[in-house]
Amino acid sequence: xxxxxxxxxxxxxxxxxxxxxxxxxxxxxxxxxxxxxxxxxxxxxxxxxxxxxxxxxxxxxxxxxxxxxxxxxxxxxxxxxxxxxxxxxxxxxxxxxxxxxxxxxxxxxxxxxxxxxxxxxxxxxxxxxxxxxxxxxxxxxxxxxxxxxxxxxxxxxxxxxxxxxxxxxxxxxxxxxxxxxxxxxxxxxxxxxxxxxxxxxxxxxxxxxxxxxxxxxxx
Length: 219
Hints:
This protein is an alpha/beta fold.
């Protein structure tokens, strides 16, 4: 699927359930790019009855090492990324298969920051936000969404005190919020392509919690 906005064209992976319709979920990739892990998340969401759309913020680039990921995230233009996410949100809501005028967002690491942002930028369209080891700006927590967070107990990329502040800020703004900390896990514990970090048990539990949350919030 192609996304078009402000003369910018971006690819996106669209997954539709066999029923042909369902609530919409936007999937925002980590700093690796739109790799097979994230496409598989979208496909699994479709198997669970959701219409999932995963936009590519990297113009086709996919990192497999941390230096590559640092390079690609460093050259990514934030305004362009936000334009792409806005376009993805609007096109997902407008898609014939998407039920309802509100969607959910799942953000992984880098994508988590943008998940918090889009819920703040377009509150009338985002009803649910799921964060996988990625936090957003504290000043972007006055939204209309409910939040579910999956965070690693041993994570050099996400400060535990800041995650706690984000959780507190969301609750102070009246947002239903549940953050889970997974013992003995690190950043990327949900992603099979990161064998140094992937934790099958924690990944399965986080997925079950995610589906229950999205079903409760979007259906």
